[in-house]
Amino acid sequence: PVLRLLEAQLQEQRREHEEEVEALRKEMDLMQEELEKQQQAFLQTLQLPPEAQVEFGLQREITRLTDENLDLKELLEKLEKNEKKLKKQLKIYRKKVQDFEAFQATVPAEWRSHEGNMQVAVQRKEKDFQGMLEYYKEDEPRLIRNLIT
């Protein structure tokens, strides 16, 4: 059984290696094609008069900069989306903190003496447990208040 297991692992590794080699060959072929296109364009450029060579070089640089600009715009859009998401999360967390502070203010004085115990409970890692009660995350402080009262 151990020999079969090792043989199966070896075959799996061989298959993965072959797939990786094939992917690298495809990538190499694409790069070869791109190199040939660039060489062809370069040879055509050399046959042009000097003014046309400059213009062709400028056109290539404009194309490169345009592509780079589009990539940067995509990155900017992605970062803006992430910023909006983070701002939304920050707003939710601020509301939770405000609700918790409001809850702390309503806690009777005798409970405050056990504040150290509550701190330990707050420091533990939060886990999401699913139960039979369905509610929105924003309504959690109000639900807790109602349960306590």
From TrEMBL:
Annotated keywords: Coiled coil
UniProt key word Coiled coil: yes
Coiled-coil annotated residue ranges, if any: 3-96
Protein name (record): MYO5B protein
The species this protein was found in: Copsychus sechellarum
Name of the encoding gene: Myo5b_0
